[in-house]
Amino acid sequence: MTALWWQTGVIYQVYPRSFQDTNGDGLGDLKGIERRLDYLVSLGVDAIWISPIYPSPMIDFGYDVADYCDVDPRFGTLADFDDLLAQAHQRRLKILLDFVPNHTSDLHPWFAESRSSRDNAKRDWYIWRDPAPDGAPPNNWISDFGGSAWEWDEVTGQFYYHAFLKEQPDLNWRHPAVQLAMYGAMRFWFDRGVDGFRIDVLWHMLKAADFPDNPANPAYQPAMGEMHRVIQVHSTDQPEVHSIAAEMRAIADSYGAQGRGARVLIGEIYLPVDRLMQYYGRERAGVHLPFNFQLIDAPWEARSLAKLIADYEAALPPGAWPNWVLGNHDRPRVAAKRGQTQARVAAVLLLTLRGTPTLYYGDELGLSDVEISSGQIRDPRELREPGLALGRDPVRTPMPWDKSENAGFTTTKPWLPLNADHSTRNVAQMIEEPQSILTLYRRLLALRRDCLALTIGDFMLLDGAADVLAYERRHRAERLIVALNLGGNSQRLQLPDWAHDCRILLSTIDDTEPVEGGALLLRSNEGVIIKAG
Ligand code: GLC
Ligand code: CA
Question: Which residues pair with 96 in a beta bridge?
Answer without folding.
Answer: 49, 196
